Amino acid sequence: MTKQYLASGCVAVAAAALMVAAVVAVVDVPVAGQSQVTPKPTIAKASVPKPAEPAKAGSKTAWGEPDLQGVWTSDAALGIPRERPEKFGNRAMLTDEEFADAHKSDEQRRTAGENAVGAFRNDGAWKTRSYRQTSLVIEPEDGHTPAFTEHALTRTATRDRGSFGEGPFRDPEDFTLYDRCITRGIVGSIMPVPYGNGHRIVQSPGVVAISYEMVHDTRVIYTDGRPHVPSTIRQYLGDSRGHWEGTTLVIETTNFTDRTSIGGGNGNGLRHSADMKMTERISRVDADELRYEVHVDDPKTYVKPFTISLPLTSPPGYVLLPYECHEGNYMLKNSLSAERAEDKALEEDTKKGIIRKRKSVQQNLDAGARPVPGRTNPDDQE
Q1: Which residues is 93 bridged to in the sheet?
Q2: According to the model, what pLDDT value does residue 31 have?
Q3: Per residue in 231-266, is it b (16+ CB within 10 Å) or e — as a string?
């Protein structure tokens, strides 16, 4: 896809361009008979409105509800593994020494992002805080997503990995909904990935809306006590209803389809069942930080429920930018056409008596078509 540069990397450039446009140089022009003295330019100061002060923890809206509004990023959770590394066992927090190492890695990530060249510039540069969490999964105690049920494994298909897998790709249904610019699902939209981790929360009496930067989904969550829609109505993002428990927004979502996933980044992975129930809890812990938790209960897919917890921060200058997904999605067409070309090449080789295996889709290249260190291209091993 050709839209990575729209995620976070252009913020500083865009801001600088606006400042330049706002500054007007005013010079005196000499008239006939005057000495040709080089005039000194006078710079008119730009009038730049100050950004609104962020709400503080415990702040309320004008109508009395806890204020969660703002533009947030899950870049804050970069570097925290989803699954807890075995070396930590059931330990949920880093020691002081481990935290110091994590902070050093975060600084290196931020510096690399700020100095990167190309479409992925600034990715990781918005991670302005370090955390002691040893994993994003906090329940069960071991910090691991529970195993799939035997029934769930019968639903395994090429679409689970889509363009990140080896196919075969026969039609668009063999790709993830993310590949197809449809949705990343709720969990896939909040989990930290290399870019596009922005979220905007706005509120009005009786309703909260959450917008996601990548694939630009927006959820409308009613908090006025109305019931869920009938069970016959199914949606990719389900049907959400919210209520307040103190300063925490609790969102209960049902009425899902069985066409999205919560298994991997960007909503890739084995799909959940239509009976899944999801409970989210969002609290403001500081002026520029939220704590987000999501509890997943789907007995048809996972052997037990589990909970993911991550920070969302709002660094100064962070904004959501447009994410035109379909407009730049040449991947889908090119992947399918390449597969048909390989079908034809295999057929022609067979006619010539050449028997070979199908060429690898991934060829051990990363998203930038660069070889993955330490791996070899399987096509070179024939």
Answers
A1: 133
A2: 34
A3: eeeeebbbbbbbeeeebbbbbbbbbbbbbbbbbbbb
Please give the residue range of the domain that contains residue 281. Answer: 70-326
Exposure on the CB side of residue 142, measured as CA atoms within 13 A? 7
Q: Which long-range contacts (CB under 8 A, 24 or more apart) does 234-241 make?
A: 234/274, 236/177, 236/182, 236/183, 236/185, 236/260, 237/183, 237/185, 237/186, 238/186, 238/276, 238/278
Confidence at residue 11, expressed as pLDDT on a 0 to 100 scale: 34
> Within a domain: residue 154?
yes
Neighbours of 187 (CB within 10 A): 21
Q: How many domains does the structure of the chain reveal?
A: 1
- Per-residue pLDDT at 56: 75
17: CB partners within 8 A, 6+ apart? none
* Residue ranges, the chain, pLDDT below 50: 1-49, 51
Q: What is the pLDDT of residue 369?
A: 72
How distant, in Å, are the alpha carbons of 6, 34, 71, 129, 319 from that of 267? 20, 71, 21, 25, 23
Q: Is residue 375 part of a domain?
A: no
| Token code pair at residue 332 | 């889908």
pLDDT at res. 282: 98
